[in-house]
Amino acid sequence: AVTRTFSIIKPDATRRNLTGAVTKKLEEAGLRVVASKRIHMTREQAEGFYAVHKERPFFGELVEFMMSEPVVVQVLEGEDAVKRNRNIMGATNPAEADEGTIRKEYALSIGENTVHGSDSDENAKIEIDFFFDEDEIVG
Ligand code: CMP
């Protein structure tokens, strides 16, 4: 089925002017960008978005990183979008990412790993709603 997922092009990528390169990989993987905006996350947004990780030892570092430079938040649409996006992103740790994936090609470390993608349809909806109003999504 055609579904939606949520993606973030992270600060390590916007800083290196890779917004287009990352988006090209997503499009080549069969995903359509149906909403996109460049934002500079506030602390409130970064902490709220990653609230599920707040007990993790890297939470503080993660929040500081996500606020350090602009990001591009996107809604992606395609056949089985969550899985399709996770396949093209590659493993969280770039050292473990498959050849041809975004993280293999561009990620710097497990923290500065270029992209975020939703891990389930349920979380995709929550994450999309966190950053977008329905009228900003144009399929
Ligand atoms: P993301 O998919 O955005 O969701 C949680 C993020 O936490 C994850 O990508 C990683 O970038 C980050 N993360 C996971 N483990 C570590 C770690 N050990 N140190 C720093 N960041 C981490």
UniProtKB/TrEMBL annotation:
The keyword NAD does not apply. It catalyses: a ribonucleoside 5'-diphosphate + ATP = a ribonucleoside 5'-triphosphate + ADP; a 2'-deoxyribonucleoside 5'-diphosphate + ATP = a 2'-deoxyribonucleoside 5'-triphosphate + ADP. Its EC number is 2.7.4.6. It comes from the Bacteria. CDD domains: NDPk_I. Keywords: ATP-binding, Cytoplasm, Kinase, Magnesium, Metal-binding, Nucleotide metabolism, Nucleotide-binding, Phosphoprotein, Transferase. InterPro entries: NDK-like_dom (IPR034907), Nucleoside_diP_kinase (IPR001564). It is found in: Cytoplasm. ATP binds at residues 10, 58, 86, 92, 103, 113. Its cofactor is Mg(2+). GO terms for molecular function: nucleoside diphosphate kinase activity. The active site is at 116 (pros-phosphohistidine intermediate). Residues 2-139 form the Nucleoside diphosphate kinase-like domain. Major role in the synthesis of nucleoside triphosphates other than ATP. The ATP gamma phosphate is transferred to the NDP beta phosphate via a ping-pong mechanism, using a phosphorylated active-site intermediate. Homotetramer. Belongs to the NDK family. NCBIfam families: PRK00668.1. This is Nucleoside diphosphate kinase.
